[in-house]
C-alpha cells in the first residue's frame, strides 16, 4: 500500500458522502418517531477525542438531552476495550469510538454519524518524537530500538497504524521497539513524548491538531515526523438493538448541530465542523490493516 | 599580640566585651542555623520515607503488571514542579531493579529506561554500591560527600516478593536557599542584638575604665611626687574601686602636706644659714670698722683743736667718714639684734608711723588706708614692731603704682598681733619671690635689698612668721607675732 496514492480515492469518497448528507437531511424532515424510552439514553465516550474536557461534555450532554427530550447519560471509559465490553453487554445505546473498534465490533453496531474534521470525515495517524530529539529522527525507520508510546490497543492511529507502518517497512512490530507502553489516551501520548518518557509515539491527528490549538505549550514539546494516509474519522455508532426512531432522532440531532447556535458553539469547542451520515466503506483501509495482523473485522 | 594586652583598659574593656558579645552571638546563631539545617534535612527524610512507602505500595502491582505508563504517572504525581524552592519536593523519583537497572524514572532524559545505575554518573554509582551493600528490605537514606543529592530509598516489595527499590532523590541545592533564608534571618537577629549590646557594652566599658584610668594616672603622678587631686564625684560608690579612690585621696593628701612642709623647712633652713653667714661676716667686719671709725674720730677732734686742716685733707677725711659710716650702717643692718630695751607697743606707735609715712605716700599720690584696732598696750617690743611695719610700708609705697592704694591692717587675735600690709601692683617674678626674704635681693632697681631681710630676721627673733601672698592684683604681706606674755 502506498501512502501517497490515497488522495484520488478520497476524492471519490467525498462525492459519495455529499450525496449521503443530502439523503440524511431529507430523512430529517420526515415525521419523527415518538419512542420515549423510560430509561435514559446512554452514550459511551472514549479517548477518541479529548474526553477529559469535563465542562464541555456536561454542556454537550445537556444539549443532547434538550434536543432529544430524553435524559442522556455519558458513560466515560479510559480504554476502548471497556466501552466495547459495555456495547457487547448491551449497556450502551450509542458510543463515539475509534474506527478500529467500529470495524472490530462488526455487525453489533451500526454507523450513526461521522464527525467532520476540518470539513472532512477523515483523520490520520501522526508519528511524533520529542521536539528536543537530539538524534533528529525523521521517519519510522529511524525509530528502531526506541521507547515508544501507544495510545490504546484498540486505537487505529495510536496502535494499529504505526504497527502496520513497521510491517510495511519489513519489521516486526513486536520487537521493533526496545520498549513500548500504552498511555490509554492520545493526549497522554503527547505528554509522554513531550516530557521524554517515550522517545516517540503515535497519535490521533485530530487530538494533536486540537491540542495544538488549545494548548500549544503541550504540542510544542513534540515534532510530527510522519503523517499516515487518511482513515475514516472515529464514528458515532449505535448498538444494533437501538430502535430505528431513536437511531434517526439521534442522528438528526447530531447532523443538525451546525445549524443550531448552541450546537455550533459546542462543535467549535470540540474543534469539529459537523457530522455526516458516513459509510462503512470509509473504513475499509482500517479493515485491510487489521487483516494484515490476522484480526477479525466483524464483516 | 602583647601590644594588644598592653592597651589601655579604656580600650581593652570595651574590646573584650565586644569580642565576647560578637563571639556569643555568632556561636548561638551558627548553632541555631546548623540545627535548622539538620531539622530541615530530617524533615525531608521523614516526609520522603512516608511518600516512598505510599508510592511503593501503589507501584508494586503496577510494575508487576508491567503497566509502565501508570507507573510513570504514579511517580510523577508528587512532582508538581510548581514551587521549585520547595525543599520537601523531590528532584527525581525512580525505581531500580535488584540488579540496578532503571525500571521507571521521573527524569527519563537523564535516566533512560533499563539504564544501568552504575552508568549514570559518579553519584548514582555510589548509590548503586550503597544499595547493594544495604539491607534491601528496609528503608535507607544516603548522602555522599561531594554529591548534591540526598537519596531516600524504599523497597518496592510485598509479601516477600521484591520488584526493586524506589529512590527519591532530593537536591541539596534546594535546601540551600531555605538555609540561606534561615541564615539571613539569624544574621539579621544577631545584627539587631549586636546593635543593641555593642553600644551598651562600649558605654559601660568606657564608664568602667574611666575612673581606673584616672586613678592610674594619679598613681603615676604620685610616684613622681606631684599627685593630682581627684574629685570624689569621679567615682561615688563604695565598692573596691571606691575604696581604692579613698585610699588614693588619703595618700595624695598626705604627700602634698609633706611636700609643703619640706618646702617650708628648706626655706627657713636656707634663710637661717644665710643669716648666720651674714652675721659672721658682719661681726668680722664690725670690729676693725669700729677701730677705724674711732681713729678717724680722734683725728677729727685733734684737727678741730688745732688750726683747720688743709681743705683737701678735710674733704678726704669727710669722704672716709661717710664711706665707713655707710659700711657700718650696712653691717649694722645685717647684725639684726634685739638690743634695745623693749617698751610695750601702743596705739600711739602706729600713729607715729602714719606721720612718718605720709610724706612718702603723698609724693606718689597714694591712698593710705589705715585700720588699727589695738588694746592700749601690747607686750611686744615697740621699736622692733615699728621697724618691721615701717619697712613693709616703705616697701609697699615703692611697689605701688602712682595713684594706687596702700593698706595697713593691724589687729589682735587669740595668739597675738596680726599685721597686714597690702599694695596695688603685680607680684614680683617667681625667681624673686623664692628668695624675697634673703639679703641683697630686690624686686626693683635702686633698692639694696636688705629691708625685707631685716624684717624677716626680726620676725624670726620675735618667734613670729611672715608670708607674702597675691590676690586680685594686690600684693599682701602677712605677719603674725605671738605676744611675749599673753594675758
Secondary structure blueprint with pairings:
The complex is a heterodimer of chains A (299) and B (487).
Chain A: H1 7-29, E1 41-45, H2 54-68, E2 72-76, H3 80-88, E3 94-96, H4 99-105, E4 109-116, E5 122-123, E6 125-130, E7 147-150, H5 156-168, H6 173-176, E8 179-182, H7 186-194, E9 200-204, H8 205-214, H9 216-219, E10 222-227, E11 231-232, E12 236-239, H10 244-256, H11 261-270, E13 274-276, H12 284-292
Helix pairs in contact in A: 1-10, 2-11, 5-12
Chain B: H1 2-5, H2 9-64, H3 68-76, E1 92-96, E2 102-105, H4 122-133, E3 140-143, E4 149-158, E5 161-171, H5 172-223, H6 240-305, H7 311-334, E6 344-346, H8 347-363, E7 367-372, E8 377-381, H9 382-399, E9 405-412, E10 416-424, H10 430-434, H11 451-461, E11 465-471, E12 474-482
Mean pLDDT value of chain B: 83
**CATH fourth-tier homologous superfamily of the largest domain in chain B:** PAS domain
| Residues in helix, % of chain B | 55-70%
| Proportion of residues in β-strands of chain A | 15-25%
Report the strand count of chain A.
13
Classified in CATH, the superfamily of the largest domain in chain A is Periplasmic binding protein-like II
For the termini of chain B, the CA-CA separation is: 76 Å
Tally the structural domains of chain B.
3
Q: Specify the overall morphology of chain A.
A: globular
Our Rg estimate of chain B from Cα atoms comes to: 55 Å
CATH class of the largest domain in chain A: Alpha Beta
Strand order of the largest sheet of chain A: 2-1-3-12-4-13
* Backbone shape of chain B: rod-shaped
Q: SSE order of chain A in H/E notation?
A: HEHEHEHEEEEHHEHEHHEEEHHEH
Return the average pLDDT of chain A rounded to an integer: 85
Which architecture name of the largest domain in chain B does CATH use?
A: 2-Layer Sandwich
